[in-house]
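Exercise 7b. Backbone tokens:
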């Protein structure tokens, strides 16, 4: 299993506070069968974390994993928040962003939590990104007020080719009841859904099995497998990395 959205890098964003905490989380994840974790630190106005810096952090964590003999691999990525269309496009064109697996085939995009900070022209931007050959994966729309309240806007993003990432905690009800309801609605309505943990620390580390089990119970085993397969597709589009053993 691959977790495509996880704040696993120590002391980088609001994720784990130490290497020890990262490794404890990873040990737990490996035990439930997670083999790959894409590190997705925040990349936003307050914390503009770009590819160059993220690659170094990922390498360091992979070294720690190797020392501890944990059977999991960290891949580079980031959760890019869309505040400013022009700046996003400029950073994208300059190759500054760290897309999922360090490959621009898939990119994780978050909409601002405050609806009034969502820039005008987000749809046009999503269409532009799709035209570059990149599939946008919209982070946790079931938790993002703007997307929850503007289903037409969400629908248009999907029409433009975006996938939707649902967070396990939303599905199992540990976020909010609204998030759970919307998560289920979106899984019912849209085919291109992927699950991820969006873990930040050991207490917020629900893994993936609980999520796939919930999908299996409510939507059938076939749908759970479909979601797993879709997330695994990202593994086929990884940039070659020095630490990867094929
Ligand atoms: Fe996140």
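Sequence design result:
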């Amino acid at each position: 299993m691959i977790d495509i959205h996880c704040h696993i890098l120590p002391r980088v964003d609001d994720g784990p506070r130490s290497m020890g905490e990262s490794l404890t989380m990873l040990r737990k994840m490996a035990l439930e069968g997670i083999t790959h974790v894409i590190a997705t630190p925040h990349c936003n106005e307050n914390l503009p974390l770009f590819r160059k810096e993220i690659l170094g952090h990922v390498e360091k964590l992979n070294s720690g994993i190797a020392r501890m003999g944990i059977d999991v691999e960290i891949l580079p990525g980031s959760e890019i928040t869309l505040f400013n269309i022009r700046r996003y496009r400029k950073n994208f064109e300059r190759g500054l962003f760290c897309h999922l697996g360090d490959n621009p085939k898939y990119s994780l995009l978050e909409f601002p939590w405050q609806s009034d900070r969502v820039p005008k022209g987000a749809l046009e931007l999503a269409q532009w990104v799709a035209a570059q050959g990149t599939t946008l994966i919209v982070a946790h729309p079931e938790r993002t007020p703007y997307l929850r309240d503007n289903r037409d806007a969400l629908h248009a993003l999907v029409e433009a080719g975006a996938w939707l990432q649902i967070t396990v905690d939303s599905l199992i009800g540990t976020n909010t009841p609204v998030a759970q309801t919307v998560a289920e609605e979106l899984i019912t309505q849209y085919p291109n859904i992927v699950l991820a943990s969006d873990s930040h620390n050991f207490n917020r580390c629900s893994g993936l099995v609980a999520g796939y089990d919930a999908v299996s119970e409510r939507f059938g085993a076939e749908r759970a497998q479909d979601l797993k397969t879709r997330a695994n597709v990202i593994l086929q589009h990884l940039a070659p990395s020095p630490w990867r053993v094929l």
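Instructor comment: Residues 5, 7, 79, 139, 198 surround fe (ii) ion (CB under 6 Å). Residues 224 and 236 are 20 Å apart (CA to CA).
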